[in-house]
Every structure is written in structure tokens, then in C-alpha cells.
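pinging the channel bc i need a second pair of eyes. not urgent but kinda urgent?? the chain im working w is below, pasted from the shared doc
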Amino acid sequence: MLLIIRATVLTPDQQQSDAAVLIDGERIVAVGRTSELLDQADAVLDVNGLVLAPGWIDLQLNGAFGHDFTADPASIWSVAEQLPRYGVTAFLPTIITSPLETVAAAQAVLAAGPPPGFVGAQPLGLHLEGPFLSPHKPGAHPPQHLRAPTLAAVADWSPDSGVRLVTLAPELAGADAVIAALVERGVVVSAGHSLATAEQAQAGFGTGIRAATHLFNAMPALLHRDPGLAGAALADERICVGLIPDGLHVDRLLVRLVWRLLGAERLALVTDAMAALGMPPGTYQLGDSTVTVDASSARLADGRLAGSVLSLDAALRNLCRFAGCSLAQAMPTVSATPARLLGLSDYGRLRPGARADLVLLTEMGQVVATWVGGRIVHGELAAD
């Protein structure tokens, strides 16, 4: 068993300084003081006051390191190997609007499992962002692949078949039946790329929608007499709100307002990163589209944003800077909150019995090392 000592530990409830964490295989056994746990350890790692946090979960990742999941679902495992450099220990590979055959291909990739010798972040299932989106709010999604929601189209969508989260427009004809069917199977449904009124959004929430995809983006503006989907999502305590804090998708003042309204309990930071994450500026794919990427943004030829080049550690640091909150206050937005949305009680938390998915970082939020299932997958640390 590995004992990590002299850590500033962020548990679900508090921050503990000079703490120790005991790991046995893939699980956390105990959190306490070194003197209480030392006699159980086979190896000891002194982290000299660095912050030890639960592993991070990205709910919306389109690709990275030159790979696009929609164009090449087989690349999921290659990307997963490199994500721990950003503190990501688990994620939802996101397939944007595309033919249903593409979804099936991505399901098959997850069903086949990782290649021999794989070490990296864990795909928790697919996030299918489309194809049941509003033709009036497609964003960077190819309009030719949009379709009406039908029960036949989602007949084999479930967590067991690799589908964990589905984004759809709740105002579309047939959406209610699809939402109900997916929720009954344990799929999380999120509202997004939508022209829904507040009333239509609330009806969708009543049917089982529990999230809003990249708040403010690809939905009507929040107006004082017409709150729309954004206002309905903010006002409903059942809804977990996804937000892209790159300073481009949402103004930093609105990030601060959302934080002050929701805190970490209902806010899940997402990157919506595409193939250019971790790569130099250039031209990359997002599904069928060619995207031009500079140092800070990814755009279609007409200037529309097409995903981001934001990493999850940068998203966390941005939230702290934009909202004026501490690293400890912000941490659940990338750990416990997305885990709770997905119904995964042993992820995103640093406590006995939870998975030993951990991130070691500086007090400024720079990633030093990452563990997935008790195994170090990023960083060079030696235990005594």
C-alpha cells in the first residue's frame, strides 16, 4: 500500500493540511495523519505540502492531440493516454452531430476496450451532442446530419452500450418520449443547441432533463422578459450547468455571476476541446468541418466558434481568476459535481472507499502528477 504524506488534501467537505492518504490498489483506504497510517504502508511518498485533489472529469471533449472523435472514434484511447497531463482521470468522449453509424462505431470502440498496455484516463461512456438539435441553433454541427428525435434512433443507447449523456433540444417534436426512454435506461439527458422557451425547457426538466450543455452558447440570450433555456436552467435546482470558461465562449463577468448564483454544487466546468488541444495553431477537423485554430480559439471559416482549445486545468484556473474563488472552492466543478451528475458515487471524491483517481498540483493549480485507479499515469515521483 502507498501512503502519500505531507499533502494539502481536498476532501469532499474540507481542506486538510499536512494530511496523509493511504491507497491500496485502485481504492483510497484512509485519509488522516501520517502517524495514524504509517505502519500500514509499504511505500511512502512525501509531496511536501502540494495540493492533493480528487481526479477530474471532463463531460464534453471532442478530441485532442490532433484527433477528432467524430471523424475517428478509434482515437479515443490514444487521446485518453495523454489527458492525465491536464489532471483528467475520466472523461466523456463527445460525438457531435453525425450519422447514426458514427455513433455505433464509437460504441464499438468502447465495447472493445483499451488496447494492450493502455495507461491513461478512463472513458466513462459517450456524450452524444446531437443529432437531435435545433436546426436554428446548430453552432458548428453539420446541419445535414440533424434529425428529429425518435425512439427507434435511440433503441440501443444506454450506459451498458456506451452512451452516458445525450444533448438534445427539448422543444423538438418527439423529444419528450426520447428523454423519458433515455432517462429510464440511466442515460443523463442535457438540453442544448436549442431555441426552447423557458416553458419548454421546464417541461423537459419535468420529463427528466438534468443538465444544460455549455450554458449561453447555442441557445437564446437571457432576456429579462424572456429567460429562455438559460434562465430556466439557472433557476431550477435540479439542473447541473455546463460552462466553458475560456474567456471567449462566455464573458468572464457572466462566469462570475454564474459562480455567485450556483457555486460548485451545480456548476460543471467543461472544455468542449477539439482536436487542436495540445497542438500548435493550424487547421484541424471537428466532425465534417475544417476548423482554423490560433493560440486561443477554434473557428469555422465564417468566424463561428467550433469547440475550444481549453484544457481542464486551465478551465479551473480561469474560474478561480474570473470568479475570485479559491482552488478548494472551485475543485468540485471538475470532480464531485460531474461525478454526481453521472451518478458515480466513487468518482470525483477523495475519501475512503473512493477510486484512487488523484491529481497532485501546486497551490496555483498547475498539475504535477496524476493517478488513475491508484496508478501514477503522469509525473515523475518516487516513493521511499
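so The chain has two domains: 2-53+348-378, 56-341. and Residues 2-53+348-378 form a domain with the Urease, subunit C; domain 1 fold (CATH 2.30.40.10). — does that match what u expected or am i reading it wrong
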